[in-house]
Amino acid sequence: MVQTNSRSAAPVPALPDAALSADGLVKVYRGGKRALDGISLSVPRGSFFGLLGPNGAGKSTFINILAGLVLKSSGTVRVWDRDLDRDPRGAKAAIGVVPQELNLDAFFTPRELLDVQAGMYGVPKSERRTMEILDIVGLADKADSYARTLSGGMRRRLLVAKAMVHNPPILVLDEPTAGVDIELRQHLWEAIRGMNEQGTTILLTTHYLEEAEQLCDRIAIINQGRLAALDTTANLLKRIDGKALLVTLDRDLDAVPTALIPFAPELRAGRKMVIRYRPSAVPVGRILDAITAAGLSIADLTTEETDLEDIFLQLTSSRSA
């Protein structure tokens, strides 16, 4: 299927529905470590896609395969409808990767770094957008400052700018907010959101759930190299339904009172009790009523949101049930 340019009869290739896709992707490193174990997922064109997982889950391996820095063991990968094996140059040209590491030449200015990067991608001088890109990431006023004089947040934004020099339709950010303070983090996300609104597909890898919740419209969660969940952010958050109630009582307990047995509390030293529950199924008031019915008084009460490890446990257990 092709689109036709209104000014000529020359056919224009239709834009792919999926910006990125992987099918049965496996990576086994020397020594037998299986970093990716049959990952299959699709990133819709124009989406802001989050790839979540704890350290060592396989996120960076996935990104490095897309960037051509790591060779996959098996499976297929398509980048902007280009097969990574059959057309590696075309696949790499369609993607810009912002790595975790601040790998910048300290003695180059942002203007020089972007010109060098553009030259490496074969972008003609007449088509380079150096100052436009620096303006997008908020570094136009630092165009001629040495990279070594830039703050950590500015260097992160400069890495984003480097990834944009060849105008790729896909931008991949691998843990981009590491070491960035709150103010500069907001500037970075403002720039990235703007690019997404202009049609750039964003793939964000992070282990910060709250960051993905604010930014991403679709999320995949991987753990130990396997896909644990893939859904829209809204649907996924509905599945992440768990809290912990941390109660400090007025006295020590030797055993769980009968009234509290249905809630399976965990007794801890120091008169503390932890009750894990699903807010959608169990109102917290029911738990408090049960504590009162057991003849106990509460000295202190706090709640704890589900963290990423709990989410993995919840998703894994629900899938295996």
Automatic annotation (TrEMBL):
Residues 20-249 form the ABC transporter domain. The keyword Transit peptide does not apply. Keywords: ATP-binding, Nucleotide-binding, Transport. One of its GO terms (molecular function) is ATP binding. Pfam families: ABC_tran. This is ABC-2 type transport system ATP-binding protein.
